[in-house]
Amino acid sequence: MEKALNILIVDDSAVIRAMIRRAVALSGASVGAIHDAADGHSGLAALEAHAIDVVFTDINMPGMNGVEMLREIEARGWTHLTRIVVSTDSSGTRRQEVAALGVRLMVEKPFAPEAIRDALTVSQ
Amino acid sequence: MPSPCHSSAPLRAALVKVAETSFFAFTDPADPAERLDVAEWYTASVRFGGPFTGTVTVTLPVPLGHELACAFLGGEDVSDQIVRDLCGEFVNQVTGTWLTGLDDGVCFDLDGPVVTQTRARPGHGEILRVNDQPVIVHLA
């Protein structure tokens, strides 16, 4: 039996958080709790408070952005986390930057809901 | 890297891609002389910085904003706040898609989107039709 994945969604856009939440729920993946946060600081707080398996994060956010949050995740040694970037910024340079921070997958905005399902499938 | 402001085609293509992929909308070219008889508009802008800087603005009719929000979230009843947030996400995705397509080797930083509601007729920009309603995209 597959382990139910606890998910964290970090994006400053409430509609994107809602859309990813909906895509996750419809993905057919075994999902436990879904948490969300509007920036990197809140994302780190959620990671401290909950046992998260997969984090979806945007890059461009006010306050602490996604790259800064990923750096902090690396610094804290949270290597068990599957890190998935969901961003409009999918340039080769950005992909290299986040790959060095443990990001296994990148979903490029605009995306169809199936892209979230596919990313979760790979995570499991 | 020089600013590509001389060509609006890539920005127009980015808007089409975002509208059709993320928002399940239909896009068509518009008559340049199209009459913009719309009572109220959302104007959503994003400033970006990197090898060059600028602001992308997308202006769309208020009813279209609600229509896109319902399509995006799969519901029938969305609040005005959610629609504004969606308009911001729309221009954010258009800007990011356009910039990523310009040069794979550079990164840009995008500020948070600013969304306003207005009765004023939009100024300059490229006009497209999204779900048979006018949408104006402008780069400054």
Q: Determine the number of helices of chain B (DSSP H or I, runs of at least 4 residues).
A: 3
* Uncertain segments of chain B: none
Low-confidence stretches of chain A: none
Percent strand of chain A = 15-25%
Mean pLDDT of chain B: 88
| Widest β-sheet, arrangement of strands of chain A | 2-1-3-4-5
**Helical amount among residues of chain B, as a percent range?**
25-40%
User: Which range does the strand content of chain B fall in?
Assistant: 25-35%
- Shape by Cα distribution of chain B: globular
Largest sheet of chain B: 7 strands, antiparallel
Mean pLDDT of chain A: 91
Helix content of chain A: 40-55%
- General shape of chain A: globular
Rg of chain B from C-alpha positions? 14 Å
Number of strands of chain B: 7
Please give the alpha-carbon distance between the first and last residues of chain A: 11 Å
The string of secondary-structure elements of chain A, in order, is: EHEHEHEHEH
Query: How far do the termini of chain B sit from each other?
Result: 16 Å
What would your notes on this structure say?
- The complex is a heterodimer of chains A (124) and B (140).
- Chain A is an alpha/beta fold and 124 residues long.
- Helix content of chain A is 42%, strand content 23%.
- Chain A has helices at 14-26, 40-49, 66-75, 92-99, 113-123; strands spanning 5-10, 31-37, 54-57, 82-87, 103-108.
- In chain A, strand 1 (5-10), helix 1 and strand 2 form a beta-alpha-beta unit.
- The longest helix of chain A is centred in the N-terminal third of the chain and has 13 residues, at 14-26.
- The N and C termini of chain A lie close together (11 Å).
- By secondary structure, chain B is α+β, with helices and mostly antiparallel strands.
- Chain B contains three helices and seven strands.
- In chain B, a hairpin with a 2-residue loop joins strand 6 (126-130) and strand 7.
- Chain B is globular and about 40 Å long.
- The A-B interface holds A 12-16, 18-19, 22, 60, 62, 87-94, 97, 108-112 and B 17-18, 21-23, 69, 72-74, 81-82, 85-86, 88-89, 92-93, 95-97, 99-100, 103-112.
